[in-house]
Design brief:
The complex is a heterodimer of chains A (about 450) and B (about 280). In chain A, about 70% of the residues lie in helices and about 0% in strands. Chain A has about 450 residues and is mainly α. Classes of the chains: A mainly alpha (about 450), B mainly alpha (about 280).
Chain lengths: ~450, ~280
C-alpha cells in the first residue's frame, strides 16, 4: 500500500483512474468497482447521509455567516393588527453556520480520502495486487493506523468544544456584537472589519483602559513570577541547608498552601484581608497600628494580590528547586571547596546556574500563566477597587478579568474578543519559543 | 578554609530555624484560622482566636440542614461531575498522549503544534460560544454539559504532560511484545497501561481536582442553586453574605479542602514528577 502508481502501467489499464472518478461521483462506488463491496456500501451510506444534510443546510449556513441575517425583529401590520415579527438572530446564525461549515470541511476530507483510496486500490489492481477484503481492511487499520484511530474521539471533542468556539470568538471580534446597540434578537449584528481593534486602540476611553490594564498585567506577571520563583529558591535552599533537621517535615508543611484547593484558599485570604473585620487588621490594631484598606486602596490591593500569589506560588517553585538540588553532583561542591570558594561563590557559580538551566522553561510557562491568572484576581478583589478612569475595569483587573467582565457583565462581546486575540498573540509568542526548546516537543524517536 | 563539609555556625543555624518557623506559621495560619472559625459559635468574622473558648459543630450541621444553603447537594453535584470528568477526561488524555508518544504518522507534528496553540487561548475565550452552543442543544444548566466541556478540553493542556510521561517508558518492551505477535490493542492494554500507572494516576488526579474546584465554567453553565457546585456555592457565600455567614463558609471550606489536601499530600511525588515531565527535562 501507499506505493506510487507506475505511469506506464497506468496507460494500459486505467482501473485506478476509473475507480477514482467513480468515487468522485459518489464515494464508495469506486470501492465497489474495485470489488470492496462492504467498504463501498459503508462509504456510500456515509456519503448519502452527508449529502442530504448539506443539500438542506449548507446554503443557509453560508448565507447566515456571510450576512449575519437580513431582517431584524420589527412590528408589522397583519390583518389590521400590529404583530411582532421575529427577525434573524445573527449570533445563532453565525454559530449554526460555523458548525455546519466545520462539518462540511470534515465531509470534504472524507470525500477526498475515499477518492484517493479508490484510486490507489485501483492502481494496485492494475499491477496485479489483489484488493483487501473487508476483514483485511479492518486488520490493516488496527495494525498500521492504530495511532490515528486513537485520536478520532479526542479530536471530535476538541474540534467542537474548543476549536469551533475559538473560531467563533475570533469572528466576534470583527463584528459589532455589543450592548446596547447590537444585541440580537432585537437588532442585527454586522461585520465591521477591524473597527473594534481600531476603537480599542484609538478611542480615548478604551485605549486608556487598555493601556492601563495592559501595563498592570505585564507588571503583575513579571513581579508575580519573579517573587514566586526566587521565593521558592530561597525556601528550598533554607530547607536544604546542611544541619537542618526534620527536612521532610518542613517540606510537607511548606507544600500545604499548594495542596489546599486554590478557590478555597483565595476566598479565605479575601476574608483575612477584610478591611473591617479581617484578622490581619485586628492584629494591626492590637499593636496600636491603624487598619489598612488591604483590598480597597488601589496600591495596597495590588500589593495584596501579589502577596497572596506568593503564598500560593512559592510552594510549587520550592518543590521544583528541591528536585533540582538533588540532581546537582556533590563533587562539584567538593571541588569548589578545595579551591577555597565561599558559600556565596558556590551558590553563584554552581547552584544558581544549575537551577536556572533546568527550570527556565517552567519560568517562562509560569510567566505566561500569570498573564492569564484569572482566579487570584477575580476571586480575591474582583478587579476592584473601581477606577473611574477605566471603562468597566478596576485597578487590579488584568486583561483576562477585564475580558470576562466585558463579555459577561456588560455584553461587549466584540471588545472582549478583540482583547482575547491580543492576549493570545502575546502568550503565543512567548510559549512557542519556549515549548519548541523543550524535550517533550523536540525529542522524537528517542533512543532508549 | 577547611576541606570537606563545613559545619554551619550555631548563630546561622538559629536564624535559619527562626525563618523556617516564621514561614511555617505563614503557611499554616490561614488553614488553622479557618478550621478554628468553623467551630466558633455565631456567624461573624470577628473574634476568631486560635484557641477557641467555645466549640460548636452547629455550622457543620447547618450546612447540611439549612434550606438556603444546599451544601449537601452541592457536594454531591461536585463529586459526580468531578468523578465523571475524571473518567472521561483521563480516557481522552491517555488516548491522545499515548498515540502522540508511541506512533509516528503524517500530520503528527502538526497536531502537536495545534494542541500547543490551542492551549494558549485563554480558556474562557470559548465561553460565549459554548454558552450559546449549550443553549441550542438544551444542555444549559445540566451536569452532563459541564462534564463534556471539562473532558473535551482535557487533552489540550494535559496531552503534553501525558506524552512526556509515556515517553519515559522504554520502547524495547513493546517491540518485544510486537515480535511475539501482540496486536496494538494488546500491547496498549497489557503492557503499556500497567507500566504507566503513575502517569495515569497523575492525569486522573488532575482531571478530578480541576473540575472539583473549577469556578469559571461551573458558574457559566449552572444557572440554578440546586445545580451548583461547591466552588460556585462557596463564592456566593463569600460575596453575598460575607460577615454574617463567615463561619458557615469556613465550615464549608474545611469540608471541601480536606479530601483534596489529603490526596495531594499522599500523591506529592506524582505531582512533582508530573510538573517536571511536561517541560523541564532539558
Amino acid at each position: 500500500m501507499g506505493r506510487e502508481p507506475n505511469r506506464t502501467e497506468l496507460g494500459k489499464a486505467n482501473r485506478g483512474l476509473i475507480a477514482g472518478l467513480l468515487s468522485v461521483l459518489a464515494p464508495g462506488i469506486g470501492q465497489i468497482y474495485n470489488g470492496q463491496l462492504i467498504k463501498g456500501l459503508i462509504l456510500l451510506a456515509v456519503d448519502a447521509l452527508g449529502l442530504t444534510y448539506f443539500i438542506n443546510n449548507l446554503y443557509h449556513a453560508v448565507w447566515g455567516v456571510w450576512t449575519l441575517g437580513e431582517v431584524s425583529s420589527h412590528m408589522e401590520k397583519i390583518n389590521g393588527r400590529t404583530v411582532m415579527v421575529r427577525g434573524d438572530h445573527s449570533i445563532y446564525l453565525l454559530i449554526e453556520g460555523l458548525i455546519v461549515l466545520i462539518a462540511f470541511v470534515l465531509f470534504v476530507l472524507f470525500y477526498v480520502m475515499s477518492v484517493k483510496d479508490a484510486y490507489r486500490v485501483g492502481a494496485d489492481r492494475d499491477k496485479g495486487i489483489r484488493p483487501h477484503t473487508f476483514r483485511e481492511t479492518l486488520n490493516y487499520l488496527g495494525d498500521r493506523k492504530f495511532g490515528e484511530l486513537m485520536l478520532i474521539v479526542p479530536s471530535i471533542g476538541i474540534i467542537f468544544l474548543t476549536v469551533m468556539p475559538i473560531i467563533f470568538m475570533i469572528m466576534l471580534a470583527f463584528t459589532n456584537y455589543s450592548a446596547p446597540e447590537h444585541v440580537p434578537p432585537a437588532k442585527l449584528v454586522d461585520w465591521v472589519g477591524f473597527r473594534t481593534f481600531g476603537n480599542l486602540l484609538t478611542l480615548k476611553t478604551w485605549s486608556r483602559t487598555f493601556v492601563g490594564v495592559g501595563i498592570w498585567t505585564v507588571v503583575w506577571a513579571v513581579i508575580a513570577t519573579l517573587t514566586c520563583y526566587f521565593g521558592g529558591i530561597l525556601v528550598a535552599l533554607l530547607v536544604n541547608q546542611p544541619g537542618i533537621k526534620f527536612k521532610s517535615f518542613w517540606r510537607t508543611v511548606f507544600i500545604l498552601p499548594y495542596a489546599i484547593p486554590q478557590v478555597v484558599s483565595i476566598l479565605i485570604w479575601k476574608n483575612m484581608f477584610n478591611g473591617q473585620f479581617g484578622p490581619i487588621n485586628q492584629y494591626l490594631s492590637y499593636f496600636g497600628l491603624g487598619k489598612l484598606p488591604w483590598l480597597t486602596d488601589p496600591y495596597l490591593a495590588k500589593l495584596t494580590v501579589i502577596l497572596v500569589n506568593m503564598w500560593l506560588g512559592i510552594p510549587v517553585s520550592m518543590l521544583l528547586v528541591l528536585g533540582v538540588l538533588t540532581t546537582i553532583p556533590r563533587d562539584l561542591y567538593e571541588a569548589a571547596e578545595v579551591d577555597g570558594a565561599s558559600p556565596w561563590q558556590k551558590f553563584r557559580v554552581i547552584t544558581m546556574p544549575m537551577i536556572l538551566f533546568s527550570t527556565a522553561p517552567i519560568l517562562i510557562a509560569q510567566f505566561a500563566g500569570n498573564i492569564n491568572n484569572f482566579n487570584v484576581i477575580f476571586l480575591l478583589t474582583g478587579g476592584d477597587p473601581t477606577n473611574g478612569r477605566y471603562q468597566y475595569a478596576g485597578s487590579t483587573d488584568l486583561l483576562v478579568t477585564w475580558l470576562y467582565k466585558l463579555a459577561l457583565n456588560n455584553n461587549k462581546y466584540n471588545m472582549a474578543s478583540a482583547i482575547g486575540i491580543i492576549i493570545f498573540i502575546v502568550i503565543a509568542s512567548f510559549s512557542i519559543i519556549n515549548y519548541r526548546r523543550t524535550k517533550s516537543f523536540k525529542e522524537e524517536d528517542m533512543i532508549q | 578554609m577547611s576541606v570537606g563539609r563545613k559545619k554551619k555556625s550555631p548563630v546561622g543555624l538559629f536564624f535559619s530555624y527562626v525563618l523556617l518557623v516564621i514561614i511555617a506559621i505563614c503557611c499554616l495560619y490561614p488553614a488553622l484560622w479557618t478550621i478554628m472559625a468553623s467551630f466558633k459559635p455565631g456567624g461573624s468574622l470577628l473574634g476568631v482566636s486560635l484557641i477557641p473558648k467555645n466549640v460548636t459543630l452547629d455550622h457543620y450541621r447547618e450546612l447540611f440542614t439549612s434550606k438556603s444553603f444546599q451544601y449537601g447537594r452541592w457536594y454531591w453535584n461536585t463529586f459526580k461531575i468531578a468523578t465523571l470528568s475524571m473518567l472521561l477526561g483521563s480516557a481522552l488524555v491517555i488516548l491522545t498522549s499515548y498515540s502522540l508518544s508511541r506512533y509516528r504518522f503524517k500530520g503528527r507534528k502538526t497536531i502537536l503544534s495545534i494542541l500547543l496553540v490551542l492551549g494558549m487561548f485563554p480558556g474562557f475565550m470559548s465561553m460565549i460560544a459554548i454558552y450559546i452552543l449549550l443553549l441550542q442543544l438544551d444542555l444549559l444548566n445540566t451536569h452532563i454539559a459541564l462534564v463534556l466541556v471539562y473532558s473535551a478540553g482535557a487533552p489540550i493542556g494535559m496531552a503534553f504532560v501525558g506524552k512526556g510521561l509515556f515517553d519515559t517508558i522504554p520502547r524495547s518492551l513493546e517491540e518485544a511484545a510486537r515480535i511475539d505477535g501482540a496486536t496494538n490493542w494488546m500491547t496498549f492494554r497489557r503492557i503499556m497501561l500497567p507500566l504507566s500507572k503513575p502517569a495515569i494516576t497523575y492525569i486522573a488526579l488532575l482531571q478530578f481536582t480541576g473540575p472539583w474546584m473549577d469556578f469559571i465554567f461551573a458558574r457559566l453553565v449552572l444557572r440554578t442553586k440546586e445545580k451548583w457546585t461547591l466552588a460556585v456555592g462557596l463564592w456566593d457565600m463569600v460575596s453575598n453574605f460575607q460577615n454574617s455567614n463567615f463561619t458557615m463558609f469556613a465550615a464549608g471550606s474545611v469540608l471541601i479542602a480536606i479530601p483534596i489536601t489529603i490526596l495531594f499530600m499522599f500523591m506529592q511525588r506524582f505531582f512533582v514528577e508530573g510538573l517536571t515531565a511536561g517541560a523541564s527535562k532539558g
